[in-house]
Design brief:
The chain has two domains: 116 residues, NAD(P)-binding Rossmann-like Domain (Rossmann fold, 3-Layer(aba) Sandwich), CATH 3.40.50; 182 residues, Rossmann fold (3-Layer(aba) Sandwich). Strand 3, helix 3 and strand 4 form a beta-alpha-beta unit. The protein starts with a strand and ends in a 12-residue tail after the last helix. The strands form two sheets. A seven-stranded parallel sheet has the order 8-7-6-9-10-11-12, with helices on both faces. It contains twelve helices and twelve strands. The protein is globular, with a radius of gyration of 21 Å. The longest helix is centred in the last third of the chain and has 20 residues. With 322 residues, it is α/β, with parallel strands linked by helices. Bound molecules: (2R)-2,3-dihydroxypropanoic acid. The site of (2R)-2,3-dihydroxypropanoic acid has 7 residues, from loops.
Amino acid sequence: MKPKILVTREVFSEALDFLGQHFDVTPNQGDAPMSPEALAKALADKNGALITLTEKIDAALLAQCPKLKAVCNIAVGFNNIDLNACQAHGVMATNTPGVLEDSTADFTWALILATARRVTEAEQYLRAGKWSGWKLKQFLGVDVHHATLGILGMGRVGQAVARRARGFEMTVLYHNSHRLSAEVEKSCHAAYVSLDELLARADILTVHTPYSPATHHLLGTTQFAKMKPNAILINAARGGVVDDAALITALKQGVLAGAGLDVFENEPALHADFLKLTNVVLTPHIASSSEATRRRMAMLAAENLVAALTTGKPPNLLHPPA
Ligand code: DGY
């Protein structure tokens, strides 16, 4: 008998076909997000699951899933998974590094440019029929070229963002939990600075750090006050790293000039005031969403699940923090 697996959200057919060669698959092609209760019920007799960041895997859930051996996230971020609980229950957890960094970095640049040059605000104005003609002072933005880019979190995505900054002839500074090797710094043309120096010097600050208790509200009122008043903030990493309520206050009070956000605390619920602000660009957590990349992510997660349940050695096994 084939092992039983659950695929919690809609995925591409090639991933389902591949999983079907190895497993008895229960798909969710209707794509409705599952409540914790529905997820526990669906996983009660399953050996594995292909999951997404909309499913929370914690001790309470795992206690109800005695046969579960592997959960494979279709995402590089894994803050939806309690790795200690997985270890305690003998459940392998995996993510999808190495396949989405370039697409996410491309999208970060879309947010940087759209925010600095007020692209969505100007388009809304035009679509609303308000454009009566060219004006010298219309939608004045801030320049990206030759500005200072601050990168908070210099993993794969942060580095890919840094490499792209060369075309804009920018000064690139970064802060990270550890300093990178001289070789990597050179390839990114980026200089390591303290968090305070990053905040003080960046014209554009872009966040690429994972979400964890250690990075919860890493950027809030205190940090915004240390930034330049004409600075913009970009977050395509995870909601919760930025204190959304504090950001809204900073944007309203002119402490910051603008923000480009792909992720939010409590998403998909959005702090209502974001929608009232004109100096923000808002997108629905799509930074990695090119078709090719989302296909690669789903396939890599499927490969992890097959390896986990057949060899016990998935290529992207996650370990609890020491
Ligand atoms: C990730 O891979 O963590 C992305 O946020 C998924 O969209």
